[in-house]
Amino acid sequence: MDTYDVVIVGSGPAGMGAAFSLIRKNPQAHILMIDQEKFSTGGMRNDCKMNFTYPIGFPEEYWSKEQAEEYLEEVTEFLKPDIMPKCNIEIYQRRAQRLGCSLLEIRQTHLGTDGGLRLIKQLLAKLQDHGVDLSLGEAMLSVDEQEKTIRTDKREIGFRTLLVAPGRKGFHFLQQLMHTLGVPFVDNIVDIGIRVETRIEHYPIVRDYYDPKFYFPEKVRTFCTNSGNAHVVKERYATERGDIWYSVNGHAYSADTSRDTGLVNFAILKTVRFTAPLASGQAFAENLGMQAALMGGGKPLMQRVGDFRLGSRSKEGSFNSDLYDFEPSLRDCCPGDISLAMPAKILRAIWKAMKNLDTIVPGVLHPSTIMYYPEIKLYANKPQYQDDYFQVAPDIFFAGDGAGTSRGITAAWASGIRAARGIARRLDS
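User: That's the sequence. What structure does it adopt?
Assistant: Structure tokens below.
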């Protein structure tokens, strides 16, 4: 049986951040990184948009401003981002403020999906050059806390320390692991919303600010804006019973005027927190996703703003080249009526935010604008951590979006570094 000083489960930014931090602090450590996918996973594969300003991506229950900025400094030093310029921000901020809304000014970089894949390739090569053993396409199945071993679909592996760093798709796996370890947790928060797609001339702020972060009353926000060579995509999810549903998402390739779609897409999401009674945000999200799939014949729903304002469902004819002057970038959706699928309280808050947004950036509610549903962002599990380094059991640590320590690439990388500091202390003891 192979035994390692550190076994890292997950090859996304949290796992990579931890690995590079450990290499620097403990260059002799014997490290293994595994991932159930045959390629490195994580947010860097999809659009690779990174934010370098607190609190974006940093859950405030785990990160103070001072902590986040300390770790962001280390992330920035390693990744050396090319921060994108912004202009005319004050104009939009004043408009937002008059409506009781806000526009955050965030330091951002955008590599695009293609640029992200190149970065992943470079980072994995660096890890292997530093002696990290990498095993893609190997899934962790279980852990024996007493024997300090994990079982995968290929072998049994011993560890001195274990870091489990899944993304949001590792949600169910992480819950099963926490049940095995007896780690108390809740997963009572979820973001529910839509993805908006329109022509860039109807949302011209993206020429001044690539991914504008608007915050509205009733816990509604914009998220993950993509423009240029931008596309809406769907993501496949499965419930514990094996039922399939889809959430939508967006991405863009690196800047290339020859492939510019002339479109922009972004999410507008409402945060839902269950407190009394305490309920599972994951289960709630799955039910909504399944309901949308039922209405869409197994596909997400899409509706033009013009039809929505008339109280009419969209039909195939709504996606012609007459009044509605662009085709959806995601054709594999079902034209329908989002108001029949989304809970009314959530839809009212989102529509109110969209009307505010149309006042701040006039044009976004053009009749041709498309609303895709559902876009669901799981806030992930909230384990009970034993220390400041995300340790959940002796010599077992969590990090990343799936573990609730982050929401996004840079914060996930920072959480990996933070866990690595705790791991290094255990290796030195």
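The chain has a mean pLDDT of 93.
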